[in-house]
Design goal:
Layout (H helix, E strand, L loop, with lengths): L4 E6 L5 E3 L12 E5 L1 H7 L2 H5 L30 E3 L1 H6 L4 E6 L9 H14 L4 E5 L3 H13 L2 E7 L4 H9 L3 E5 L3 H13 L4 E2 L7 H16 L7 E5 L4 H16 L9 E7 L4 H7 L26 H11 L2 E5 L4 H12 L5 H15 L8 E6 L24 H5 L10
The chain binds pyridoxal-5'-phosphate.
């Protein structure tokens, strides 16, 4: 058996815990996974990784799985990093990319974390997993539970997108609505964990999901030839993937795999409908105060108070980035700005990042030559609950060509 994880470590006080048994959070705070990076450096190289199958398991030495562990997998493909030259030109920038996580099996980046978390839970003998979720995480848990032959229980707040409800129901999860927000749902799921009704897979409450999401950062580095971009935009709810990417970059730097020691600035973006991290960032604080009036169509960002708050704020500050809010009422407009320039229909969570990019490019905070990557965390197609277009109607028995012609601004054929 070969495994490179050595132990877990409390993110708040450094207490260590063994890696060879199932771990959950301790003292209400998350755990870091720690590895023997010297042994990894001796065992594997970027060249060896390049020769492997193009899915997230190609980085297995940097994951908590030993080679005896059988993954619960839907072949988590490397997601494309798509250049967006027309949007870039519109913003007077040279290099804008979307890393499109919507191509994964669950149409969201939650696939990576849940694939790994359920793999480890099953490995250590868990038969039922549970989660408090705003949608995509619960859906992904139900999907991977079905794939791995586990039972699952999901507790979601009202207003959770219907697509996520369908993912849970059709994959055989037991699912309930709760009349509150995700942190309140989370407390109940925790109580059930303490009663041994299930294993709690909720955000940051077990250490494995974070490691699965680390592959977003590893993949990005590999796709950029082990030379990281200058700026990364990430739509932040609980912040798992932001924390995970920053951890990935630091591990890569320590392994000596990066071409330079320059790290990207991480821009964490929330909606004005739920900006607790923005408020803490602006006040110079390390922990958030619960935001009481959460109201955003970006369901993944409906997190009034995340338990990894300090890990997000530490990472952003260390990177020289910042936490900003994008105006809730503009989310569909920014979604359209990208879609109409590039044909990529991103989720409303990612629309906040488009808004933040427009703002920061406009005021010169991003230099023209800088390489900018925006994470599209899910497919826009999953979010049709709030999309209510007013389409003009055409009378097909008696139609008026001028109504159609007046809509077009240029000839149909090149001269
Ligand atoms: C969960 C989710 C987020 C937020 O992710 P965190 O890791 O909790 O910050 C962003 N976008 C989408 C689509 C999500 O499902």
């Amino acid at each position: 058996m070969t495994r490179y994880i050595t132990h877990f470590e409390s993110a708040i006080d450094g207490t260590t815990y063994p890696a060879d048994q199932l771990q959950t959070w301790h003292a209400n705070r998350p755990l870091w996974s720690r590895y023997d990076l010297d042994r990894i450096r001796a065992a594997v190289t970027p060249e060896i990784i390049a020769s492997r199958r193009e899915n997230m398991w190609r980085y297995r030495e940097l994951l908590p799985v030993g080679d005896e562990v059988e993954p619960i997998s839907l072949d988590e493909q490397m997601t494309p990093t798509v250049a967006c030259p027309r949007l870039a030109q519109h913003l007077n920038l040279d290099h804008v990319y979307i890393k499109d996580e919507s191509r994964l099996a669950t149409c969201s980046f939650k696939a990576r974390g849940l694939s790994l978390a359920l793999t480890m839970a099953r490995h250590f003998g868990v038969r039922r997993v549970a989660m408090a979720s705003n949608g995509n995480a619960g859906g992904a848990m139900a999907i991977y539970a079905a794939r791995g032959g586990l039972d699952s229980f999901v507790l979601v707040p009202h207003n959770t997108p219907i697509t996520n409800i369908a993912e849970c129901l059709q994959c055989g999860a037991v699912i309930f609505y709760g009349n509150g927000f995700i942190d309140q749902c989370g407390r109940l799921v925790r109580q059930g964990h303490d009663r041994k009704l299930w294993f709690d897979i909720s955000t940051m409450k077990e250490p494995y999901r974070l490691e699965g999401k680390k592959t977003m950062g590893l993949e990005l580095a590999e796709q950029f030839g082990w030379d990281l971009p200058d700026v990364i935009f990430y739509p932040t709810g609980g912040g798992t993937a932001l924390i995970a990417m920053w951890k990935a970059f630091k591990e890569l730097r320590e392994l000596g795999w990066l071409k330079s020691s320059r790290m990207p600035r991480i821009i964490s973006v929330q909606s004005t409908g739920c900006p607790p991290l923005v408020q803490a960032y602006e006040k110079g604080e390390r922990f958030v105060t619960r935001y009481e009036n959460t109201d955003t169509i970006a369901s993944g960002l409906r997190v009034p108070q995340g338990i990894g708050d300090f890990m997000v704020l530490d990472a952003v500050r260390e990177s020289g980035g910042k936490v900003v809010a994008a105006e809730e009422s503009q989310l569909f407009a920014w979604q359209k700005l990208l879609a109409s320039h590039e044909g990529l229909l991103v989720c409303p969570e990612t629309a906040t990042c488009i808004g933040a990019l427009v703002e920061m490019a406009g005021c010169g905070e991003i230099k023209r030559s800088e390489k900018v990557v925006i994470f599209n965390t899910a497919a826009g197609q999953k979010y049709m609950d709030y999309f209510k277009p007013q389409l003009p109607e055409l009378d097909l028995n008696n139609f008026d060509w001028s109504r159609i012609e007046s809509q077009f601004t240029r000839p149909a054929y090149a001269e």
